[in-house]
Amino acid sequence: MVFPVFYEHKRIKWPHPLIMVAREIENNRCKGVLLEGVKKEGNLLAKKTSHFWALLLFSIGVFMAQLDNGIISSALTTINRHYDVTDNWGAWGITIYTLGLAISLPIVGKLSDRYGRRKLFIIEIALFGIGSLLVALSPSFGFYLAARFIQALGGGGIFIIGNSHILSTVEPGKQAKYLGLLGAMNGVAAVLGPNVGSFLLDLTGNWHILFLINVPIAIVLFILAFMRLEESSDPSPGRLDLIGTIILSFAVLSLMYGLTNIDINFWASFKQLEVSGFIGAGIVLFIVLMLYESVLEKKENGDPILPIYLIRQPRFLMVLLIGALSGGILAAMIFIPAFTENVLGIMAEKSGYWMTPLALAAGVGAGLGGTLVTKRGPVFTVIISGLIAAIGFALFPLWIELKWQFVVSSMIAGVGIGVILGAPLNILATEGLQSNKGTALASLSLLRQIGMTIAPTIYAGFIARGFNNMGNLFQSDFQNVLQDNIARADLSKEALGELAQIGQQMAAGSGAIDANQMNEIVGSIQDPALKEVILNSVSEITRMAAENGYGGLYWSAAVLGVLIIVASLILVPLRGKASAVSRIE
Fold first, then answer.
1. Euclidean distance between the first and final Cα of the chain, in Å?
2. Predicted pLDDT at 269
3. Which residues pair with 473 in a beta bridge?
4. How far is CA 13 from the centre of its chain?
5. What was the pLDDT predicted at 45?
């Protein structure tokens, strides 16, 4: 039966009761849609706010922890004098921090997956703050080393927790951008550490302030994490793998200790028990751990500390190899202050500031890496990173003669380093994972740390061989260099006579002249103008030796960039096979 919309009764019109009911339903439906829209807008706003706080807290935490890893280098001599220890003992302030980082990485990654990233972030910040306070208040050198270890246990996992939290909570389209920002903070802090340390030390004259400054920052982060940071985790049903955790700790400690004992004579170092013995013990412990974890994985409630199923995948192993190579490239940054001092003639106290262009470029590169991952994918981004870094470091021996050329070259290298520091490798390491993201990222960071530990020894070998070759340079090039400098100088007859006598002494000697003999000759010169000419000539030979040594170093870094490109190309078909297997499963 059809009802008219209105009944008419002379002058009065009114709606039919059924129509009123229909209108009420329609009004309620509109209100529901409106409320649903408001609710969605509120959820979106809440999510954006949550992401903002997470990114802010993790960025500050990453910057603080990574800054401390480099800031101590500027104060090392002052700290050694304070505790009256030798330089060899004093270097343990850095070594113990490296060992603590290496141990904490895989363990914190697993614990954050299991128990929640918010909880572990709070614990890590607390440990880092307490460790910083204890370092500043250390009454003895032994206490100082123990406090540095506590610091490392706290600072080592912050970057891992931040990355895995982003990968678990942020929509895929924005992950690369956020990871790029964290990578930028990590890279810039690593490079700026020595500069900030030098500035604070010059300003205050007190090395304790380098560590006390961390305490209020840690307290603020601790409070804000409780209030603003949301929890995320990949809960595991099994029991915590305590035995595996203990074996892993000793395996990493033994391996890293052996690696840090390698000296300039790389292969000869393996004849020493504290190198080959500890590295061998570490490898044996890793084999034992793999066997134990494989058995544990098959148990119903087994939850291995290592991602065994990932380690069996060629794709993941190739990502770990690229991570180790990227660590080797990162280590090349350590030698930039020495390069500017020995090759460009920068004063030693100012050389650290010349890392700033690379640091700024690394920050830009990390952001660029996030954008490239979103638009072109992680493998393409890694290839671009290796290419840019290889070009930048190859320019060091090929092109740099003036300071502005150094700035351009270091900025190109910095962009390449920044790109790989950010999103691409983290995306590749966690690709296709529904859980264990923190564990995968921790494995990647551990391999990068191993690369950063091995590479400096290889690089230092190039520098040592360059300076050891100075005797040959004196024999082959010194005469030409000296003649050019004499031609530009206005020497007196007396000076020329004295120069002839020196030439006769050198001709009467046998064999190549080393640096010590040249210093004796320079010390015996009476004429000031002649002395200046010979000193300039000796400095030029020294610079040539430095160019040879650092040239080998940065050619090696460029080769690592090329190897990253090759490994990335090999990774392409491996990713395809992994995707095909996952689709079949």
1. 58
2. 87
3. none
4. 80
5. 63
